[in-house]
Structures are given as C-alpha cells and as structure tokens.
Write a structure and sequence with these properties.
Strand order of the largest sheet: 5-4-6-7-1-8-14-13-9-10
Oligomer: single chain
Order of helices and strands: EHEEHHEHHHEHEHEHEHEHEHHEEEE
Helix content: 25-40%
Structural class: alpha/beta
C-alpha cells in the first residue's frame, strides 16, 4: 500500500521574485522578468533578452564562506531549500536525518565555471585551473550542497532530464516517500545558464527567440511565437508523508496524487510530432492518481514558445483528453519568467500549488494572436474559481516527458 504525499513547504528564487510570496505576487500581477542581458555583453548575439534573477546575494541565505564554494545554480537551490524548510517548520533536531532526503536536479550545472576555467587553461596553463572546478561545476552539487547545509542525510539524488528535470525530481521524491524510502524530501530544480556559451549554444540551435520586444519575446501558443527566452532560478518544495505531516501539525498546501513519465524515442531536440509520448505521460499520471480525464480542468503546460513544442503539446493534450481537451484551462508560466530549463517544472509546480490554494489560474501573458493549429483555451485572461486538480507537464530534449498531478488537500 503506497503512502499519501503532501506539500508542506515551498521556496523559490525567480526572475520576478526572490521568495514564493514575491513570485506569486508577480504572477498575479502579470509581471514579466524579461530584459536586456546584463550578465555579459550580448550586443553581438541574435538573442539579447533573458529573464535574469535580480538582486540575489548568496550571503543572505548562507555564510559567506559556503557561498564562495558554490556556483549560482547551487546558491539558488540552497536559498530556495532554506525557504522551503522554514515554510514547512521542519525541526531537524526532532527528525531522523536519514529519513529526510533531497531530490534537486539541474539540467546543466555551471557553465560559468567551465567558461572561466577554460579561459585560465588556455591563457595560463593547466596548473592555474581551480582545484574546485569540478565540484563547482557538476550538476549534482545543488543536491549535495542542500543536504550539507541543512544536515539532510536521507536519499540524495540529482535527476537530469533537460527541461523535464524539475518535474522528474519532484516525481521521484514523491515515489520515494510513497514507498517508504523517506518521510520528507526536499525536491525541485535549479539552473543558471545565462552565459555566452549558454545563450550562444541555444541560439545556434535556433531555440531562442530573437525578438527584441520584451513584451512579445516569450509568447507560448501565440501564432507569432519565435522561440523561448532563457530564464534562471530555482524552486524547492518540501514533500512529506501525510501522517508524518499530521503528527507534527504541519500546514498542508496540497496533495501530490499522480506522476507519469515516458520517452518519445524520436529525436534529440524535437518532441514527437503526434504528441504520443507526452500524451502517454499524462495518461499514466492520471491512472496513478486514479482520476478520469474529465476530472482534469486545468493544465500548466510546458509551453515554451517554440513552434514545435507548443504545437506538439497541443496535439498531446488532445490525444490524452479527446473532446474534453476543449474544456480544459491551459496556461504557460514561461510567458512571465521564461524557460528555467532544469528549474522550470519545479517553479511551475509551485505555481500550481498556489493556484489550487487560491482558486486562481493565471493568464498566459502576451498571448494575443491565436494559432489555427493551437486551438485550445490558453487563458488569455485569468480565471477565478475553485478547482480540484492541477496537471503540470514538462518536456525535455532527448524526448523526456514528465507529468505530475496535484490535488486540493481535503484531509
């Protein structure tokens, strides 16, 4: 018998806010995080806009020495985890540290460390490479640093499935608690890749929008969409076994009820054109949650703003839900914060929790021009009113499809 899993804490570092409260206020206000890249001189690049985290100082979340030994992606994760732990009011002095684990993923790790040390290698020779280059760079160090900072000794994993990383990380934490490997898991994703190589590489792939208008650069499902906008940040949530949460009187935000994932086995960057793989992930998640398609009335889409993703995700939703697809509210959080790669699914999970809690589905900001082939309800306007389930999709390069389902907690 699997155990019930609930959300008892949340933390977020995003382009529109350095806490869950700030982020959610930004979401409700339709705030966008897009502006000219400031982290390096991007004047020679086709893409010059990004959604950067603003005003973040690692030393505000950890001691200065610890911050110096972490790259930004790890700092963001530790900061989000700190907020999630405090929000959950989890007293580690009263917990078995080996029953509290971490599942925090990053799609890439630190491009900054690679770029910086590569310059040193070429200009000054191998003896000048930082001895900490590898532990600063590798993607598992976000999870490692979270566990070290907070003394979490349980299962510790780093799921890397490109843009599906955040959702897979939370899904695998959900499974770990369901089947008794942990009582509490800090789970989520983190990323910081707004660098010359990051922007240059995704531009060369023709994945990024080259639009210079920050109000029209990230417009998922819009006919004029031209690619995604790079974002950065982190979201970490505290997932907890229901009875464990009840015993300590924790506030319960929502219940996680379903998780499904598949592979397209089709192409290294393009989703399957018929949407079959993503549809199956949604079907598996619904079966896991024990819900019928008709019970799902809201989807937080992967919705990147690339031509292929939005079209094929639309086809996947139609395939999974049939005629009911026309009655589902669908929105794209990336319309405000861009694509946070490995952190995207985690930030969107937090969005779903807040939407369930407040009975509010945010609008897809910037959506103006309907596309004949993307013909579902993409929330041109916000929707108010209670709903029971939120389904969140994440689709990653390599053909990774991940879906997670949240339910309004009812005891």
């Amino acid at each position: 018998m699997s155990r019930r899993v609930v959300v008892t804490g949340m933390g977020a570092i995003t382009p529109i806010g350095l806490s869950v409260g700030e982020f959610w206020d930004g979401i409700r206000a339709g705030k966008i995080g897009f502006d000219t890249i400031s982290k390096f001189d991007a004047s020679g690049y086709k893409c010059q806009l990004a959604a950067e985290v603003k005003g973040f100082e690692g030393k505000n979340y950890m001691d200065f020495k610890s911050a110096k030994r972490m790259e930004l992606f790890s700092q963001y994760a530790v900061a989000a985890a700190k907020e999630a732990l405090e929000d959950a009011a989890l007293d580690m002095g009263k917990e078995d540290a080996y029953r509290v684990g971490v599942s925090v993923g990053s799609g890439i790790g630190s491009l900054q460390a690679m770029e910086r040390e590569h310059v040193k290698l070429l200009e000054r020779g191998p003896s000048r490479v930082n001895p900490l280059m590898v532990p600063l760079m590798i993607s598992n160090m976000a999870a490692g640093n979270v566990s070290i900072q907070f003394g979490l000794k349980g299962k510790n994993i780093n799921v890397v499935t490109a843009c599906a990383t955040g959702t897979n990380s939370i899904g695998e934490a959900f499974r770990s608690i369901q089947y008794g490997e942990a009582d509490v898991m800090l789970a989520g994703g983190t990323e910081s890749c707004i660098t010359p190589v990051g922007i240059g590489g995704f531009t060369a792939l023709t994945a990024l929008s080259s639009c210079s208008d920050k109000y029209r650069c990230s417009i998922p499902f819009d006919k004029e969409r031209s690619g995604f906008v790079m974002g950065e940040g982190s979201a970490v949530v505290a997932l907890e076994e229901l009875e464990h949460a009840k015993r300590r009187g924790a506030k319960i935000y929502a219940e996680v009820t379903g998780y499904g994932c598949t592979a397209d086995a089709y192409h290294i960057t393009s989703p399957a054109e018929d949407g079959e793989g993503a549809a199956k992930a949604m079907e598996f998640a619904m079966a896991d949650a024990g819900v019928s398609p008709e019970e799902i009335t809201y989807i937080n889409a992967h919705g990147t703003g690339t031509h292929h993703n939005d079209l094929f995700e639309t086809r996947a939703i139609k395939k999974a839900f049939g005629s009911h697809a026309a009655h589902i509210r669908i929105n794209a959080t990336k319309s405000m914060i861009g694509h946070l790669l490995g952190a995207a699914g985690a930030v969107e999970f937090v969005t779903c929790v807040k939407e369930l809690e407040e009975g509010y589905i945010h609008r897809t900001v910037g959506y103006e021009v309907p596309d004949e082939e993307c013909d579902l309800d993409y929330c041109k306007e916000a929707v108010e009113g209670e709903f029971q389930y939120a389904l969140s999709n994440s689709l990653g390069f390599g053909g990774h499809n991940a879906t997670i389902i949240l339910k309004k907690y009812e005891g």
